[in-house]
Specification:
2 copies of one chain form a homodimer.
Chain A (H helix, E strand, L loop, with lengths): L7 H12 L2 E2 H12 L7 H13 L3 E3 L15 E4 L1 H12 L8 H9 L6 H28 L6 H40 L7
Antiparallel strand pairs in A: 1-3, 2-3
Helix pairs in contact in A: 1-4, 1-5, 6-7
Chain A binds a DNA duplex through helix 2 and helix 3.
DNA sequence: TTCAGATGTATCAGCTCGATACATCGCTCA
DNA sequence: TGAGCGATGTATCGAGCTGATACATCTGAA
């Protein structure tokens, strides 16, 4: 906590370093590739974050392999410590309201393969209800406005709402898939496919 | 420039106050209704912005109407000055790269009814090429990645790209409409519909 | 009457972005 | 050879925004 580190960035960095050790520059590229259109991190957030994680003992500098030692090392390659792995597990397990914020959701989603089915469902459903709530607010605010809005503003509203509706449908599909899988593995564990759930 | 004021917020505030004088609380509600799903401003940015605009003489406190004078005024209603109107025109006329940033585009769009057709086209086309460029980068970065990504990450990429593709199509429609209107008014001005432009 | 919730102004810590600085490496073109 | 250039690489800073919070008033309902 000594140094700036926002939780979501921490997850992104620890999750990436868990897969393989990286140095800052490459970490940024990897993360931005991973997140695609959703998000792009800047050095101004990554380097302070790495410094903070190092400071807290969650990551350490990796020793360069012997055959590179001769040259001055310019790269600083980081890898997770045991505490770092623990912390990552913690971040992957807990899913609070921040997990379905716009900025956090993509990160959590990108590391879904490491998280429990139950947590995945919680995050997906949390995001869905967050979006639906927001749409509801916008719609009622829009309906309450007395003056009539010009066509450009209305078009903006329409497009915005439609985009979010599409995301909700996408979330629904994902949730259904997750549920179907959960049910399947549940009934496999039970060894007897009863009709009652 | 004395106080914090980011250009896009300045446009949003001046544009709103141009239509009718408002106090901070109401300004925020109006702006957030106007922008719908696109953006929401916080007090932490609005009040400093109002202070800055006041400081630079672009807005002034409006005298309360006589029939309210008796009670202590708690509201501080602001309205544009002549310099404020000038500045607003300036902001509406100029369209640079910042106009097609994610955070700015919605604001510019929401005030399109006050801007020239030529500027509207510049902003729409600028945003389109910005999005296309970004998609191109993501796609090549994705193609260059050697390791294969898990299904969640791929799904995230797919959804992200699809959303942006949809926005590009939306922009195309708007651009076509704008162009058609521009051509129409152009030929009306010419009074003779020649084939060569 | 009291209390909750909307209205209203204002600030602050923490965090992020975009720009920038600086240095090295490998490549190409002359 | 070496000049130039773009990618690689680490790092910092100012400016600005969010979310939380504090505090005060007004209104209507219980």
């Amino acid at each position: 906590m000594t140094v700036s580190r926002s939780g979501v960035l921490e997850l992104a960095v620890l999750g990436s370093l868990h897969e393989n050790p990286l140095h800052g520059y490459e970490l940024r590229k990897r993360l931005n590739t991973l997140l695609g259109m959703f998000r792009a991190f800047s050095y101004g957030s990554l380097y302070p974050c790495l410094k903070g994680l190092l400071n807290d003992g969650l990551i350490v500098e990796e020793e360069p392999p012997d055959d590179v030692v001769l040259g001055r090392r310019s790269k600083i390659v980081y890898k997770l410590t045991a505490e770092g792995k623990e912390r990552l597990q913690e971040l992957l397990t807990q899913a609070g309201p921040s997990s379905w914020e716009d900025e956090s959701f993509g990160i959590h989603f990108a590391f879904f393969r490491h998280t429990e089915a139950e947590v995945r469902l919680r995050i997906l459903e949390g995001r869905r209800s967050r979006l639906e709530e927001r749409m509801e607010n916008v719609r009622t605010a829009l309906a309450r406005t007395r003056e009539r809005l010009d066509s450009y503003t209305l078009e903006l509203q329409r497009h915005g709402l439609e985009s979010v509706e599409r995301e909700v449908r996408w979330l629904n599909e994902l949730i259904n898939t997750e549920r179907a899988q959960a049910d399947k593995s549940q009934s496999e564990r039970d060894k007897r496919p009863d009709s009652d759930e």
